[in-house]
Every structure is written in structure tokens, then in C-alpha cells.
Design brief:
Blueprint (H helix, E strand, L loop, with lengths): L8 H14 L8 H8 L4 H28 L2 H21 L3 H15 L3 H11 L5 H29 L2 H21 L5 H10 L9 H30 L7 H15 L6 H4 L3 H21 L3 H18 L2 H9 L5 H56 L6 H4 L7 H6 L2
Helix pairs in contact: 1-7, 1-8, 2-3, 3-4, 3-5, 3-9, 3-16, 4-5, 4-6, 4-8, 6-16, 7-11, 7-15, 10-16, 11-14, 13-14, 13-16, 15-16
Pfam family, one: MFS_1
Protein name: MFS transporter
Membrane topology: Multi-pass membrane protein
């Protein structure tokens, strides 16, 4: 993570395109509020719709990994983003709960298509030693765009929550156009060769990957409580739900401001188990702050704390998963691990809305704090037990000067 190696051009362009997409990516966080306020449905109905969206993202992620090998990565990314835009516009125009459910499920089915090809492109285009740096840079770019997205959410949300979905649709289309115009074209020979290369890959039988999937799912449940139920929790506390956008902006600013610190030798060389333990402890401290918060200032302070933990966690887990994959298998391994977000997308809104209804926001955040403490103990132990994988493509990374060629062949 030191030395400032320049990432391949295709990776840098992909990061910029994803940052453009992130500008409008907070609409899903307000889906439950849209249902309860615009259609006067109960919290259980809102949680059920969000769960249906989460269920639909599971096949979406797996299909995205397979399509990336079949039709090419650029085509898959463009198709996924275009589908997201159409579904978002449908949500904005929906005039009944039935239509909201239809478009929410449709959105889930296309929502994760672009993630596996994006992550695999990064993993294949840079040396294994640079994976954490590349994924952290992607997160920093998304966080920088997230600052504008949070302000956009706070502004448009005060006007009409439907405009959040319109803004998200427009940024999806802009990102799709950017990817189509600036990323290298898919080569048919590469797309046809990929299935043969991954025939022997069986990620569902890899015990280490499945253990990572288990802890990753718990982390995703915690994280989605922030993304999905935070506006609803603030509404229960008598605060404006749209002010969650200010908290998202604060989180993004913390992550961006913390990026230079990650280049310090002490942090750059921090062993993965120590980084995971520290990150989860900070996450627990921040969510514990949410449990005690009763005003916007307290929420802002707690957001800074958990975001510092997120800074240590982001990038490391994807680097571990990419390191587990055999040659030609990164896309499928990352897709399987990514189903953790789909599973959490079902569990998080159901558990979150029920906890708020029966235990209040303090009960919700207290439960998430305990879950973070559990991960602080489990994740480091798991990482220590993962043996090094002797894969040729990881032991002998391509020279820096050839990495642009490898990225272009994607």
C-alpha cells in the first residue's frame, strides 16, 4: 500500500465510473420510508418489500459472475446499470404498493449484476500485493461521491423522496454510458475462454470461502441496518429521516479524510487479524453511540467513529477472498462471497424493523453492537487459520508494465 504505484488505466476509469454511479446511490436507504409515508403502509410491510429486494439480489450477484465470463465484463456492467435505471424510474412513478413491490424485486434482480465483473476486473488487473490498495481506492472514490450523494439525499428528500430514485436512475445511466465509452471492449475469445478456465472451480465446496461468507453475511446485516433502517430509526426518535443523508455524508468525509493515514507504514503493514479486530471494535463503539444518541450532533459523532472502523475493514476482505480463488476463478469466488449482501438484504430489513418496533432504536443498535463484538473475536481467528494458496497467478503477478494489457483483454 506504500509507494504510490499507479493502477492500470482500465481500473482507474472503472473507479471513476463507479463514483459517478454512487452520486445517486442512496435511494434504497429510503425505500422503507417511502412505503410508510407515501403509501401509509406499516413497518412490517416496508420490511417485507425490502426483504423481497434483498432476496432478488442473490441470483443477481451469481448471474453477474456468470455473465461476466459468458458475454464479457463491460457488457455485463452496462446491462446491470441500465436495468437498475429502468427499475428506479419505475419506483419513482409507482402509484401503489403493488407496483412498488414489482419494481423493487425487478431492481433486486439487476442490482448486483455489475459487482462481480467490477471486482474481478480490479483483482485481475493488479498484483495481489496491491489488492487492498486498489479496493481501498475504489472505496475512497465511492466515499467522495457519497459526500455529494448524502447532500443530494438530504435536499431532495426534504422535497419529495421519489426524486431520490430519479436521481439514482440518471447516475446509473451516466455510469453505464461512461463504462461503454471508456473501458476496453470485450473480446469474444476472452469471453469464450473464461468458462473453460473456471470449469474446475467449485467455490461452494471451499471451506475457507464458506467461512468467510458466514462472517461476511453477519457484517453485511450490520452494515445494511445503517443503510436501510437508519432513516426509519431517526424518524422514531423524532428526527428528520432525510437527515440520514447528512450522516452518510459525514461517513464519506471521514473515509476520504482517513485515506492518507492508510499510507503510514504502521497502518499499511498492520496484519489482517489486527486490522479486522480494530475495525470491528470501532464499528461497535460507533453503533453503541447510536443506541445512546438522542440528537443529530450525537449521531454525527457516532458516525465518525464507526466510519473509522469501516476504513480499516474495507478492501481487506475482498483481498482475502481474491487470494482464495484459483486461476480464472476470481469472478465466481467474488460472486459467491457477494451473496452475503443478498442474504443480509433479506435478514436486515426484517430484523431491523422488528427490533425498532419491539425494542426501539436503542434496542436495534445495541444488538448490532454485540454482533460487532462477536465479529471482532471471530474474524481475526478465521483469517489466521486460512492457509496460503499456492496459485501460479498470485505467486507470479504480471509486471506493472503489462497490467494495462491484461486489463484491456478483459
Amino acid at each position: 500500500m506504500q509507494g504510490g504505484k499507479r493502477l492500470p488505466r482500465a481500473v482507474r476509469l472503472l473507479i471513476v465510473a463507479r463514483a459517478v454511479n454512487r452520486l445517486g446511490a442512496f435511494s434504497i436507504s429510503f425505500l422503507t420510508v417511502l412505503i410508510t409515508t407515501n403509501f401509509e403502509a406499516g413497518a412490517a410491510v416496508a420490511g417485507g418489500v425490502s426483504a423481497a429486494f434483498g432476496l432478488a439480489t442473490i441470483p443477481s450477484r451469481l448471474v453477474g459472475g456468470r455473465l461476466a465470463d459468458r458475454i464479457g465484463r463491460r457488457r455485463t456492467i452496462v446491462a446491470g446499470l441500465t436495468g437498475c435505471a429502468l427499475a428506479q424510474l419505475g419506483l419513482a412513478a409507482a402509484d401503489s404498493v403493488t407496483l412498488v413491490i414489482f419494481f423493487a424485486v425487478l431492481l433486486g434482480l439487476v442490482f448486483e449484476l455489475y459487482e462481480p465483473p467490477s471486482q474481478a476486473m480490479i483483482a485481475d488487473a493488479v498484483a495481489p500485493s496491491e489488492h487492498v490498495h486498489a479496493y481501498s481506492l475504489l472505496n475512497a472514490a465511492l466515499a467522495a461521491a457519497g459526500m455529494g450523494a448524502g447532500l443530494m439525499a438530504a435536499g431532495l428528500g426534504r422535497w419529495d423522496l421519489r426524486w431520490l430514485f430519479v436521481a439514482d436512475a440518471l447516475t446509473c445511466l451516466l455510469c453505464a454510458l461512461t463504462v461503454y465509452l471508456v473501458l476496453p471492449a470485450d473480446h469474444l475469445r476472452a469471453a469464450k475462454a473464461a468458462p473453460d478456465q473456471t470449469t474446475a472451480v467449485t467455490p461452494w465446496r471451499d471451506r475457507a470461502l464458506l467461512l468467510m461468507l458466514g462472517t461476511g453475511t453477519l457484517f453485511a446485516v450490520i452494515y445494511l441496518q445503517i443503510m436501510i433502517t437508519l432513516p426509519l430509526a431517526m424518524d422514531h426518535e423524532g428526527l428528520r429521516p432525510a437527515d440520514a443523508g447528512l450522516l452518510f455524508t459525514t461517513s464519506a468525509l471521514t473515509i476520504c479524510a482517513g485515506q492518507p493515514l492508510m499510507r503510514w507504514r504502521r497502518l499499511a503493514t498492520l496484519p489482517a487479524p489486527a486490522a479486522f479486530a480494530t475495525g470491528y471494535l470501532l464499528l461497535a463503539l460507533g453503533l453503541g453511540g447510536y443506541a445512546l444518541a438522542d440528537n443529530l450532533a450525537a449521531y454525527l459523532a457516532a458516525t465518525v467513529v464507526w466510519s473509522a472502523g469501516d476504513l480499516l475493514l474495507v478492501g481487506r476482505v475482498y483481498a482475502v477472498v481474491a487470494g482464495l480463488a484459483p486461476p480464472g476463478g476470481k469472478g465466481r469466488y467474488l460472486a459467491v462471497y457477494g451473496t452475503s449482501w443478498g442474504i443480509a438484504g433479506i435478514a436486515a430489513p426484517l430484523t431491523g424493523t422488528q427490533l425498532i418496533e419491539h425494542a426501539g432504536p436503542a434496542g436495534l443498535w445495541s444488538a448490532m453492537t454485540l454482533a460487532c463484538l462477536l465479529l471482532a473475536a471471530l474474524q481475526p481467528a478465521l483469517v489466521r487459520r486460512i492457509p496460503p494458496r499456492d496459485h501460479d497467478d498470485q505467486l507470479q503477478p504480471a509486471p506493472v508494465e503489462s497490467q494495462d494489457i491484461r486489463a484491456a483483454d478483459l
